[in-house]
Design a protein that fits this description.
This protein is 24% helix and 14% strand. It is α/β, with parallel strands linked by helices. Bound molecules: 1-deoxynojirimycin (NOJ).
Length: 585
């Protein structure tokens, strides 16, 4: 089955549910804790499913919930065919899928193909086996080079590749072993060699195993380094000043390699074969990769032989600047021509939350990069400004064709928690850079559900002993002010905005119909037309007069990201998105 869209009058009908879906990302560890141990779990998701369903979304995507030593919070998988013990078991998982289905929600999982955990049985067998063994062939084990002082014939790594989270990408199997193994991210995450038949077979089985349990698709992690130059040559030098965490992504011998495409074709064949054998199932996989400003690259991955979708992170990384936002939109919708649909996200578990990013003093600087979770952005943050811009940004994104992935807590307007105490930080990015990069813990703080501090703001339900453990990451002062229970009583709150936008998007079929036409109406105004719908985002801190807006002057207001300012005559308020209906097209 292909992902083409068909024209029907002035509407474009989607053939697949995922083409225009709104998907809610659940970071399992931080969503809701049903047994009081301070760690989110699958029962917790069941407990709070109503909140997700109430938003009107189509599906949930679960961050990895497989057994894992949690060195990268599940992105170090020890077993692809089970559930992590702190999160539940397969029975609970099945109940969750069934409950979700009852509420019309599909379930997507997270697949981690580039690497597993160093505790995976295959990797343990590999380190115990000899060089040249079948066990080692599933990974990248290579002989070390002589150490600089000549004292050890295998004392230096096999090449100069650097790891994405700091340090060399190679780890010696043991002190007296001639071989080292490759881990693109951390030593606890050894890379699979996907040219190995065992590895290929296992991943086909992983798809089938979870599809059999009712999963409707996978977010595929870290597609960038899957596929390597088989000779593993040294990487060329990087430009002076390249950030230490960027070095790995400059390595042409492991970034977007042609060998990777063979893996994706094999995955797609597995999915297509499964669908052929199970009529009625409509399955998909979405690629995770930062391919910003590279629509050509996106097209190389998103096509009927490989991925159904790939995240467009352009908008997520964009500063609050008209030209940059327009560029992000143009590049991301470029793939529509090929029959694919763009896949938007403004947040995820790897970047600082949008309220903080867009609240920064530097957010309007066209050169600023707002994905600063891995960096050390220090400019001051105004959360009121950030929240206002976040409302405007989601209102703009929701007007786009394609699908959109929301990250839990963004509907609450949660900020990034920047001051997690060092001793409580758990992100390997922090640990592997000796604290030079603060990492991503700040967007993974357990969610607030109620005002009650005794239950970590409703995150934890008391366990069998009637007690509640401290949450795995500390919640800051005032966290309860953004609790679901409190915001749900306020019609102007962020969750209300999300509900309204998702409903509007569905009612007006904005995800589906009509191409996007960017309009040049006024400086500082991102303006677009989609049929009768006109969407205006003022990215400045001053109102923009509507009488300057030429042909959209007189259109009827439909929605404003600042409802109290909806009826201000003649202006688009600052840092605000309005939707208008222009019936006299
Ligand atoms: C991307 C994931 O989103 C991130 O959380 C993880 O650390 C890396 N891939 C490695 O798996």
């Amino acid at each position: 089955m292909t992902a083409t869209a068909t024209q029907d009058g002035d509407r474009t009908e989607m053939q697949h549910w995922w083409q225009d879906a709104v998907v809610y990302q659940v970071y399992v560890r931080s969503f809701a804790d049903a047994d009081g141990d301070g760690i989110g779990d699958l029962e917790g998701i069941r407990r709070e499913l109503e909140h997700i369903a109430s938003l009107g979304v189509d599906a949930i995507w679960l961050n990895p919930c497989y057994p894992s030593p949690q060195r990268d919070h599940g992105y170090d998988v020890a077993d692809y065919f089970a559930i992590h013990h702190e999160y539940g078991d397969l029975e609970v998982f099945d109940r969750l899928v069934a409950d979700a289905r009852t509420r019309g929600l599909r379930v997507l999982m997270d697949l981690v193909p580039n690497h597993c955990s160093d505790q995976h049985a295959w990797f343990r067998a590999a380190t115990a086996a000899a060089p040249g063994s079948a066990e080692r062939a599933r990974f990248y084990f290579r002989d070390g080079r002589p150490s600089a002082d000549g004292s050890d014939p295998h004392g230096s790594p096999p090449n100069n590749w650097m790891a994405a989270f700091g340090g060399t990408a190679w780890t010696r199997a043991s002190d007296d072993d001639p071989q080292w193994y490759l881990g693109t991210f951390t030593p606890q995450q050894p890379d699979f060699d996907h040219t190995n038949a065992d590895v290929a077979r296992m991943f086909a089985e992983v798809f089938e195993f979870w599809f059999d349990r009712g999963v409707e698709g996978f977010r595929v992690d870290a597609i960038t380094p899957v596929g390597k130059d088989p000779d593993l040559p040294d990487a060329p030098p990087v430009p002076p000043g390249t950030d230490e965490l960027q070095v790995a992504w400059e390595n042409p011998h492991t970034v977007f390699r042609p060998e990777g495409h063979d893996v994706w074709r094999a995955f797609r064949t597995t999915i297509d074969s499964y669908m052929a054998a199970h009529p009625g199932r409509d399955l998909m996989m979405v690629a995770e990769s930062y391919m910003n400003a590279r629509p050509d690259l996106v097209r190389a991955f998103v096509n009927p032989e490989q991925f159904h979708q790939a995240f467009a992170f352009d908008l997520l990384l964009s500063p609050w600047d008209r030209a940059q936002i327009e560029r992000a939109i143009t590049d991301s919708i470029d793939i529509v021509e090929t029959g694919a649909t763009p896949t938007w996200a403004l947040n995820n578990h790897d970047v600082q939350r949008i309220v903080t990013r867009l609240g920064r003093a530097t957010a309007t600087d066209p050169a600023s990069v707002t994905n600063n979770a891995l960096g050390a952005q220090t400019s001051p943050v105004d959360l009121d400004v950030g929240r206002r811009r976040a409302r405007a940004a989601i209102a703009l994104a929701m007007a786009m064709p394609g699908s959109i992935y929301l990250y839990m807590g963004e509907e609450l307007g949660l900020p990034e928690v920047l001051d997690v105490p060092d001793e409580r930080r758990e992100d390997p990015v922090f640990l592997h850079t000796d604290g030079a990069k603060i990492g991503r813990d700040g967007c993974r703080i357990p969610l607030p559900w109620t005002d009650d501090p005794a239950t970590s703001h409703g995150f934890s339900s008391p366990g069998d002993a009637g007690t509640v453990a401290e949450p795995w990451l500390p919640q800051p002062e005032g966290w309860g002010e953004r609790a679901v229970q409190r915001l749900d009583t306020d019609e102007t709150s962020m969750p209300a905005l999300y509900r309204e936008l998702i409903a509007l998007r569905r009612d007006r079929a904005v995800a589906q119909r009509d191409p996007v036409e960017l309009l040049d109406l006024a400086p500082g105004l991102v303006a677009l037309r989609r049929g009768a719908l006109v969407v205006l985002t003022n990215v400045t801190s001053s109102p923009i007069a509507v009488d300057a807006l030429g042909d959209v002057d007189g259109a009827t207001p439909l929605f404003s990201s600042e409802p109290s300012e909806m009826h201000t005559p003649g202006v688009v308020p600052p840092d605000c998105t309005v939707w208008l209906v222009d019936d006299v097209e």
